[in-house]
Design a protein that fits this description.
Distance between the termini: 25 Å
Helix content: 25-40%
CATH class of the largest domain: Alpha Beta
Strand content: 15-25%
CATH superfamily of the largest domain: HUPs
Strand order of the largest sheet: 3-2-4-1-10-9-11
Shape: globular
Number of domains: 2
Radius of gyration: 23 Å
CATH topology of the largest domain: Rossmann fold
CATH architecture of the largest domain: 3-Layer(aba) Sandwich
């Protein structure tokens, strides 16, 4: 994992703009840094060594989080013939299979460097049309990524179809600036936008345009037998976890662990593959998440670290959380707090790679409101709604989770959103996802797989609880906000973050005060732009 940033300029601007972006996002890649500027590539262990007063029309920057790679992995990378240069953030899980499709004309420095293989794939197909070439290559990839590649005349930036890895940009007077996080663009005049999942941005002398890259595959619903669904899904998920572990040169990996079926199932698979795994749970001492996590970790023999929280701890870290996730939205902050503290604890333990159970609810109808969709509109509407939520997961979930883990230089992997897992899950009839009756079971196939893999019944069929309530975070922020207002009522909130979502827990007493409190933190601590 890393930070990528850069610009395409019509007339040329100082490369110091990019080194400044690298400074602001160094937490994403503290181990090594590189700069491409109009054909020239510099690499160093320190960003200051890349600083210059020179100008360039095309400049790309990269900061690397080392996960056991050789020093030759320092980016930007240059193609064998020197025509192409690339910066890449993410993981291409099927790079070994794709490496086998390359001709023998490539000089490969590191056959286990997925970024290098990606560049060689582009180089092999490149015929002078960079956009068309990248559009062809991304259709082959299974992974999470954003990358920027240039032939010197133009830049093409691509984002994975689910949107696991973020990338933002600003247009200013015909120039375009890009960065893995918004904070790298705060000093650029113009509106900060994101490149949507599966899209590409092309910048050249003719202007800046968005293009289609690769869409999430929408297979037919052709798995209608429950036992077949369980078998195929179990195999797809097992293969995905194994693929994400394969090639890792680390001694131990982490798991964000709530004690719910989603995180426990992934933890069980990792443990079964023989990896040293440490699970991290965050919550109040009496919270449901902590109690369930402790019980299931004991029964499965998992190594569990519990980070206890109270009002003071939450109060102390809220400015850091808001700055990391780049929003003051109440729901976003509440959900981010446990993950932020889990990643912080993992980083302090020397862990560089963590796994999460995110995505299972969107694949298998885990949220309580999906049952209402079935009751009101039927199972076909449920299937359509699941696709809608998968396509929107980047906006309110994936970007946040990437930022809170990368704030501590920890890479997050999301097995449930593996390309093949998504394809398998969405081939399964929605009737097999919610079992009917008044006591309907959501995530039916998913829970059955967990039980088959020896996840205890009390966890495999545990009712879902939202992260902010299961951990106790919601109540803690509410208490801190009430203390701040000292019994007074807030009548309005003018947010720093214009994108905040106000529709949260309608009618819940104290919600407006919580919004106002987070706004005050963002304003007084200058956490946002």
């Amino acid at each position: 994992m890393c930070s990528i940033c850069g610009y395409f300029s019509q007339e040329g601007v100082p490369t110091s703009i990019v080194t400044d972006m690298l400074q602001k996002t160094e937490h994403r890649g503290p181990d090594a840094h590189g700069l491409y500027a109009d054909g020239k590539i510099l690499r160093s262990g320190e960003i200051r060594d890349l600083e210059s007063s020179e100008k360039a029309e095309v400049c790309l920057g990269h900061s690397r989080l080392s996960i056991g790679e050789d020093d030759n992995a320092i980016q930007p990378l240059r193609s064998c013939d020197g025509s192409l240069s690339l910066v890449h953030n993410g993981e291409i899980y099927n790079y070994r299979e794709l490496r086998g499709l390359l001709s023998k004309d490539h000089t490969i420095e590191d056959e286990d460097n997925d970024s290098e293989i990606l560049l060689h794939l582009i180089e092999e197909i490149y015929d002078g049309n960079l956009l068309k070439t990248v559009q062809s290559v991304v259709k082959m990839l299974n992974g999470m990524y954003t990358f920027a590649v240039t032939d010197g005349d133009e830049v093409v930036i691509a984002r994975d179809p689910v949107g696991i890895k973020p990338i933002y940009y600003v247009e200013e007077k015909g120039d375009v600036y890009l960065c893995s996080e918004k904070k790298g663009l705060y000093d650029i005049e113009g509106k900060i936008k994101r490149i949507p999942p599966g899209k590409m941005l092309r910048a050249n002398k003719d202007g800046i345009t968005l293009h289609q890259g690769v869409r999430i595959e929408r297979p037919q619903i052709d798995i209608t037998d429950f036992n077949k669904a369980v078998t195929l899904y179990k195999n797809a998920l097992t293969d995905a976890v194994e693929g994400m572990l394969r090639g890792l040169s680390v001694d131990e990996v982490g798991m964000i662990f709530s004690g719910g079926v989603d995180s426990v199932l992934i933890a069980k698979l990792i443990s079964d593959f023989g990896w040293n795994l440490r699970c991290y749970c965050v919550g109040k001492k009496d919270s449901e998440d902590v109690k369930n996590a402790e019980n299931v970790a004991k029964d499965l023999g998992l190594n569990l670290s519990v980070i206890y929280i109270d009002e003071r701890k939450v109060e102390m870290i809220l400015p850091e959380v808001i700055e990391s996730i780049e929003t003051e939205g109440l729901l976003q902050v509440e959900v981010a707090v446990p993950m932020y503290l889990a990643a912080k604890a993992a980083s302090e333990d020397g862990i560089r790679v963590m796994f999460t159970g995110q995505g299972a609810d969107e694949l298998f109808a885990g949220y309580w409101w999906y049952k209402d969709v079935v009751s009101e509109d039927g199972f076909l509407k449920l299937h359509d709604k699941l696709w809608e939520d998968i396509n929107l997961a980047y906006d309110d979930t994936l970007e946040r989770e990437d930022k809170v883990t990368m704030a501590h230089s920890v890479e997050l992997r999301v097995p449930y959103l593996d390309r093949n897992v998504v394809r398998c899950a969405m081939r399964i009839s929605p009737k097999l996802k919610i079992k009917g009756g008044e006591d309907s079971i959501r995530k039916w196939v998913h829970r059955r797989v967990a039980a088959m893999l020896s996840v205890p019944h009390y966890t495999a069929y545990r009712e879902k609880d939202m992260a902010q309530s299961g951990s106790g975070v919601h109540g803690l922020i509410k208490k801190v906000a009430e203390e701040y207002f000292d019994g007074k009522k807030a009548d309005k909130v003018e947010t720093v973050d214009k994108g905040s979502n106000y529709r949260y827990l309608d009618g819940d007493y104290g919600t407006l005060e919580m919004w106002a409190y987070l706004h005050e933190i963002a304003r007084s601590n200058q956490c946002l732009e």
